Amino acid sequence: MDEASQVPEAAFTELGRIRLDETSVEDMLQRVSQLASRTVPGSRDVSVTLVRAGNARTLASTSDLAKDLDDWQYRNGFGPCLDSSPSGGSVSVPDTAAEPRWPGWARYARDRGVGSSLSIGLPIQEAVVGALNVYAERAHAFDAEAVNLAERFAAYAAVALANAHLYDNAASLAEQMQEAMRGRAVIEQAKGIIMGERRCSPEEAFALLSKISQDTNRKVRDVAAALVARAADSPRS
User: Fold this and answer.
1) Which of 17, 188, 115, 225 lies closest to 196, judged by CA?
2) pLDDT average, residue stretch 29-33
3) What whole-number distance in Å separates Cα of residue 112 and Cα of residue 126?
4) 123 Cβ neighbours under 8 A, 6+ residues apart
5) Domain edge (last residue) among 133, 150, 170
6) What does the pLDDT look like over 153-208, one tens digit per residue?
7) 8 A C-beta contact, residue 69 and residue 109
8) Whether residues 140 and 197 fall in one domain
9) Shared-domain flag, residues 134 and 77
10) What is the pTM for the complete model shown?
11) Which of 28, 139, 140, 167 is the most buried (most CB within 10 A)?
């Protein structure tokens, strides 16, 4: 759409009512995109880019056109959204017909009816960044007011992505801790078996597990698990 159809205060009030514990990050970002496209003056389409470990993808978009313009940048490795993501700043393309920095992307965008664009960087974590991308039909569509509004929407998107990143890290850490606890339990079981068979100390039992691990090029946990399984399968007298 070429002109904003929603009052900014109403849009931000609506965003403020969204609870991240009651909706998915994708739904939250989709709502940010939709409201931005209706609120930022000159906006036609909006998308949200996430870049993690060098891999970029679009998490939300208001149209196939916005996603297509993002995907072109991901495939070719350059463009305004990829430049704004690591810098955290705002990158404006006032006129795709006269854009010297990314002529290939500008020509691609112009052929699809896009005259200008604005990408706002989303600094989330050290290894995870992103961008809010706003596309317009006409050239020179984004004035200072439009940039300011886009940056305010970007702040909401950054919070949603940061929370998602923290959740992913917490879930990954919890899984690692559970795996470590399972590994420790099986090692303790194996030590008990060795101590019973050899009448040795816990230290001597662990030393034996470590030696087998080195000799067979297997993890201590795997050696212990094999020993426990063998003991469980052995017939009892």
Assistant:
1) 188
2) 85
3) 34
4) 88, 129, 158
5) 170
6) 888 777 767 666 555 554 454 565 566 667 777 888 888 888 888 889 988 888 88
7) yes
8) no
9) yes
10) 0.66
11) 28
Task: Say how far apart CA 146 and CA 56 lie, in whole Å.
Answer: 25
- How many structural domains is the chain composed of? 2
Token couple for 207:
């030393």
What's the CA gap between 195 and 182, in Å, rounded?
20
> What tens digit of pLDDT does each residue of 76-98 get?
999 999 999 888 889 999 999 99
Joined together, the tokens standing for residue 106 give 């500008």
Supply the pLDDT for residue 141. 96
**Do 34 and 18 touch, CB atoms closer than 8 A?**
no
As given in the structure block, the two tokens for residue 51 are 């870049």
Residue 199: CB atoms within 10 A of its CB come to 8
Average pLDDT over residues 50-79: 93
Task: Please write the tens of the pLDDT for every residue from 100-158.
Answer: 999 999 999 999 999 999 999 987 766 678 899 999 999 999 999 999 988 888 887 77
Query: Does residue 215 fall inside a structural domain?
Result: yes
Single-letter amino acid code for the residue at 70: D
Q: What DSSP character marks residue 53?
A: T
Dihedral of alpha carbons 106, 63, 46, 58, sign: negative
